[in-house]
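Listing S7. Sequence submitted for prediction.
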Amino acid sequence: MSIKRRDFLTLGGLASLGLTGIWKMLQLRTSWDTDATAAVPSNVEAQRAIVPLPASQPILRFISVADTGTGAEGQYAVAGAMAQYHLENPFNIAVLAGDNIYNNGEIEKINAVFEQPYQQLLQQNVKFYACLGNHDIRTANGDPQLKYAGFNMQGRYYTFRRDPIQFFALDTNHNADWENQLVWLEKELSQSTALWKVVFGHHPIYSSGVYGSNQSFTKTFTPLFQKYGVQLYINGHEHSYERTRSIDGTTYLICGAGAGTRPVGRSEWTEHSASRLSFVTFDVYEDRMFVSSIGTDNRVFDRGVLKVRSA
């Protein structure tokens, strides 16, 4: 697979706000009432009917959360809800979609921003599988986190399988090894025989938040996802929750409210969005996957259903 140099230079280009990003954030915060694609913020949520889960147990259950590594009150509130959920609905896989250590990826903070907040889950042998966010690469390009056993990273990009799912972790930062990574991703996707294919990275592809959608990512990843039957892409970076409708067979899920929140709007492809501290759970069956967002009050505030498909 080939991609032009100018696209490499813009891939992940919104990794840090800078002056341009700050100006864009201000524009977004003042344009939601008039921008037809962003609509209005979903901070105030209407009562929504929640799809019930099946009575039978899933084949696999996992969770995801991102933008967590503050060690502050918000992270502990979400971590507490995750631990409570685990007591009632056990799981042993947690996808950690980047910005694992604020502000600069300093590994010496690992106890305060990871081991202590998630102590209960770690003691119950829950494995966290991380990818690198833009804050994580500020120290030694993220190498200390790659070496940290608790993040279970097998490289800057890697894959692992837990039947019936194969997971594909990406490095979506601006300085990623895009050429080799994309060749690797296409090869791994083409060879996968898993019923479900789930890709995760830090940066969004579709987003109604302060960063917005990434057109370079859309051009690069969506054809691959459609060609090889990827049903789900998980990311953070936006400090909010957003679930899209199925776009050419793929649902795009933002779970970046693991420690703090920012405003989020809606787009024509948004199923639900919310600016609230939360994490996401996944109940996986042979033909369906139930995606549930849970707040710090331990209640589900959104649930969608994904259908299995193959390439």
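Caption to Listing S7: primary sequence and predicted structure tokens for the chain studied. Confidence is low (pLDDT under 50) at residues 1-46. The CA atoms of residues 76 and 125 lie 19 Å apart.
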